[in-house]
Design goal:
The structure is a homodimer of 498-residue chains. Chain A is α/β, with parallel strands linked by helices. Chain A has 18 helices and 19 strands. A 7-stranded mixed beta sheet of chain A has the order 9-8-11-10-12-13-14, with helices on both faces. Chain A has a 5-stranded parallel beta sheet with strand order 2-1-5-6-7, sandwiched between helices.
Amino acid sequence: MDQADINSIDTIFNPRTVAVIGASDVYEKWGFQVFSAAHESSAGTARRVYPVNTGASEVHGEKCYGSVLEIPGQVDLVLITIPAPLVPKVLDECGRKGVRGAVIITGDFAESGPEGAARQAEMLATARRYGIRIVGPNIMGHISTASGLITTPFIHDIVKGRIGFASQSGNIGVQVLQYGYNDNIGFSKFVGTGNEADLTLEDFVEYFAQDKDTDVIALYIEGLKNGRRFIDLARQITPRKPIVVIKAGRSEAGSRAARSHSSALAGSDAVYDAAFKQTGVIRTGTVLDLIYTCSALCRQPLPQGNRIGIIVIGGGIGVLAADECLRLGLEVPPLSPETIRRIDEVLPQFWSHGNPVDIVAESSATNECILALLDDPNIDAVMCVSTPGLRQILPKRINHVPPATRDATVARLNRTIDTAIADLDRVINRMDEVKKPVIFCKTNPVEEKLNPRVFARLNEKGFTVFRTPEHGAGVLARLLWYSRYLRQRQSQRYDAQS
Amino acid sequence: MDQADINSIDTIFNPRTVAVIGASDVYEKWGFQVFSAAHESSAGTARRVYPVNTGASEVHGEKCYGSVLEIPGQVDLVLITIPAPLVPKVLDECGRKGVRGAVIITGDFAESGPEGAARQAEMLATARRYGIRIVGPNIMGHISTASGLITTPFIHDIVKGRIGFASQSGNIGVQVLQYGYNDNIGFSKFVGTGNEADLTLEDFVEYFAQDKDTDVIALYIEGLKNGRRFIDLARQITPRKPIVVIKAGRSEAGSRAARSHSSALAGSDAVYDAAFKQTGVIRTGTVLDLIYTCSALCRQPLPQGNRIGIIVIGGGIGVLAADECLRLGLEVPPLSPETIRRIDEVLPQFWSHGNPVDIVAESSATNECILALLDDPNIDAVMCVSTPGLRQILPKRINHVPPATRDATVARLNRTIDTAIADLDRVINRMDEVKKPVIFCKTNPVEEKLNPRVFARLNEKGFTVFRTPEHGAGVLARLLWYSRYLRQRQSQRYDAQS
């Protein structure tokens, strides 16, 4: 891609004026949802969002235009939700208006058979004639948190962050963003690529590679139009910016479904897998694994070896966490005598004296145990199952404390949390100094309700608390794989130079 | 076990009077949390819960006794939270008082070394002398939803249901119950077995087998005291009541952690695995897989084959769901012409015409698609990814509908949901008639907020909506394994008879 292509994509993510063609007041229509999303998200920005619909004079109480041609001044981007047969004509009007980009939500193009394919070809020819760049068709919109633009209708909300995400499925796109929102994981940009009539997933990979708002590139892939180009790009990009993918269609039934979904030629999964391995692309299997890996890559140092120190609030969870680490090729080695000595100072004498470190519910000792493990030369990464300071405070239960001592109790509990937060900052500093990752996992699905201030601090500092130790172990295994890939690349370069 | 043993365990789960030894007004003490839990949960029942503490005259504003001997009348059960060295003497008083059961929360017994082991032996001798049955020590309490007793301190709440759960880890116990609560999965009883000084996991398995409140037995196992007895029990029980387990300590590091946690002799994992396979015990790997499998066993018919029909709200999610089914040995076969004809009637013509059935966001057609798949002779089970009637209604967005049509819009959306609910009842009836399971999975972490009435109806009818299609596929694979085990057992019986 040249600078003009980059600029075109920039305009699509950061338009000054947007027209929604098919904007509607009927709740169930895509034109309602897309206009609402674009309009809401643009409130408070300098961006204008115009409704266009031949059948309405007003939409959401604003003046509605019969055609994009009637809108005063320049229109940078159009969002199209009208039925497929009407799209080519409307695109011609957009061309005459000087529109630079079109996000085509509408389906029933190449994915639905020969008739749709012909329609897609006609539309593309029109776009090419005018130099309009197309995203889609058959997608669920796009997002830039930097410019505050959301055209994806079906999301609750999104957190600003450093992950750039391109998806060949709109539904997976929404799922990833919603899971991200739920766990406070932030995105810089999102785009659904759909049928890729014009702009492809590869184009967005190249765009994200140079995007200053993006530190990690996340992809959902069903099939690539230009595998060779992807491989070349990935080889160049992964030493500077990690690329994390879900590649669907591992199975024959999956490939079949992918073909009918996005008309993608899924190709042999083994070929994709080998290409990912050779170019340092991190492959994950599920939506949570994708976003958790991206989140860790945004914040954590990479582990330099496979020896994991585990801290757990109670025994059983430690057993399962160790099992999962071992299954993934990680090690859970014995602790050094110095580490045991340091932990002896903060835990009751009957603690496990081994790895996993069972803190026997002494949550206030969590941070000291992490520090001891970070300093252990036999440990490459720390997995902490339960958040520091967790006391499982049930709000209703505070009422059982006699009134005479209730205030003092609350003050004492708050001091414990204050200490946990102060110590947490020491842990994070130490983690950055010794360059070993510290992964936090929940013991409990409601842990953020039980320990809200520590959760908030962890989120503030860029940490995601993963749902289970299994998720945390998976993230560590993928970080380690990537770390080893980078070292191998580095040594190959030295070899080539010498 | 004989009837007297069953009666003793019955008393532990359904005592008329309980004393909490170590009850306290200091929030951070176990005696505070356990007394609060027992006291709160017994409100509105005929049960009396007495605080006992030598150092207090009142606890939670109630008269506190210096010894269990001072309590007027019979005491059925004691909950003990005082330090380990004090336990043997207190247990002697309990014996003199005629107490029948003791739930010993306190740790620092056999799990902490020789001194603790000696203490545990002394305590057990005292209990045996008086005929007191012991649960624990080193546990996090027990629960009976039927009798409304909760002695487990660190849970938010629990749903009444048909799963009986015994756990060799208190933390895993709490985790399972909290995940269950979050997904509205109900339990009949819970018990942590801890060090198993007296009552063992095997005892509770035998108890649950005859318990009228329990339809499915869930277990977290680190190591069995009497493997032979477990095998004999499992062989007898699984044809009538499913047993679902997590067995920890798959790895060497895990086994080591298990030993230091509950002093369990984990033994070779391969031996356990073979025993489970031979006796029809369903093995799962994670807490969510455990409760989801139990939930499905409580409500769903067992699949008679491995051919899965998948319904999805959008393409990409279907591809991943099909991939996961295939990975687990399930099939996603083509649909019969009659099924395609029926689905043609309810979906736009450009639907996928294959399996997975991509409903292209036409949520109102979900139920008709499930019915068509249930009637397809080539399909053994249905997995529906997204709840029927899901329209992803964002409450804040309704305000963008012009005031003149807002009421009519809300009424129309509600009618769609009314229809979805009525059709859902037809689906459930048909499912029971044709005896094929229907598994629902979320597409979205906030789907219950977007579609609350349909979620509520599904929960009412005993269905859990699983978090991801991956979870759903795992449940189907385990149900199929169990179904095949049962058929094989059945045919062996016929062979033996002929």
